[in-house]
Amino acid sequence: MKIGIIDADILSRPRHRFPNLACMKMSGFFKREGHQVSLVQDYEEAGAFDRLYLSRVFKDTFVPSEILKLGNLSYGGTGFYYDKAPKLPDEIEHCMPDYHLYDAFIEKIRRYGESASVYKFYRDYSIGFLTRGCFRKCPFCVNRNSTQAVPASPLEEFLDEKRKKLCFLDDNFLACPQWESILDKVLETGKRYQFRQGLDLRIMQKKQMEKLFSGKLDDKVYFAFDDIRDKDRIIRKLDLLYETVKVRMNSIRIYVLCGFDRTGKWEDGFWYQDIRDTLERVRILMGFGCLPYIMRYEKCWVSPYMGMYIVIGRWCNQPAQFTKKSLREFCTLQGGSSLRYLEEFEKAYPQISGYLDMKYGEVAAYGALYRG
User: For residue 25, what pLDDT band results from cuts at 50, 70 and 90?
Assistant: First the structure.
């Protein structure tokens, strides 16, 4: 059969920087079965295939309604079902991904002059899950129905020796009881690696830090600071990390969730407190020289202070801006709506002013002095 694989996210976001693992596994399986498989790069091509398989990671990715009505289409992914997304059949889940699925797509974006950084995950990385699941049950998370972290795929199941780096999508790797023996297999490869979804800093012990940082870590190391109530624990763990491995703290990137109300109400009083708590977490991370990455929950887009979430995200998520300018300086330089959002919020809540003027270099220098 002629089989078309549709990665809906790249059709909705032409500069989407990460391949869809489910799509690559389906392609690998169907090619192994002898079928002709192609990545669909335009919905108008859909009629050329006997079977179509569509995957979507993000809920806001647009898919034409007429495509979803096609009788020869199967679709799935967290973008449709979120935490209730059906699993791939075992014979596909444990199939070597087809890392060549995106070759034509990469060639197309290269012709448009995109830099290699846009498609590095398509070309340079073996990608997979070493473990699956998490015990946290965070209500905003796709793993909120999970109860534990367990081994998922052995490394050799998705390792392409020709690719120089490894990228793991584990939900909470260090919560898996077998983390050490699995990580030993990673270290044996001698390849650079990263845990893209982040690691749970709150449960890390000295042994885990030493083992993790003994390998060739790639790019940034990702953790999360989702709740201001974890403030004291996060500070203790960052102190321990600094003392244990003497890592350059600007190589640590920490996801900062905002816009999620754990009461489920999202009432007026919540928005100021959440923005303040977000900036307080940013301040703490500045003190360690870490780089925050703002993760905005979907309710941010209906907040009366949506603009503040926009500018905080733009500021923090561009390290070249974040490490040189305060939020006020950033918004002043941007002008227009950015400056208006900031001024309107400060007028309503003047007590926020101190956070608007904090600067990475100054706070980080004070933190370094404090740590000796």
Answer: very high
CA 50 – CA 354 distance, rounded (Å): 61
Residue appearing with tokens 């220098």:
365
Phi, psi of 68 (to 5 degrees): -65, -15
Q: Torsion angle, CA of 103/105/110/114, rounded to 10 degrees?
A: -130
Contact residues for 127 (Cβ-Cβ < 8 A; gap 6+): 19, 21, 24, 97, 121, 158, 166, 167, 168, 169
Angle at 253 between CA 218 and CA 231, to 5 degrees: 140
Q: Identify which of 279, 218, 227, 206 has the alpha carbon closest to the alpha carbon of residue 253.
A: 218
What's the CA gap between 71 and 85, in Å, rounded?
Answer: 20
CA neighbor of 131 nearest in space, from 173, 167, 90, 89 = 173
* Torsions phi, psi for 19 (to 5 deg): -75, 160
Residue 307 CB burial class (10 angstroms; 0-12, 13-18, ≥19): middle
Q: Is 289 strand, coil or helix?
A: coil
Neighbour count for residue 296 (Cβ, 10 Å) = 20
Q: Which helix (H) or strand (E) holds 340?
A: helix 336-348
Q: What is the pTM of this model?
A: 0.93
Position 219 scores a pLDDT of 80
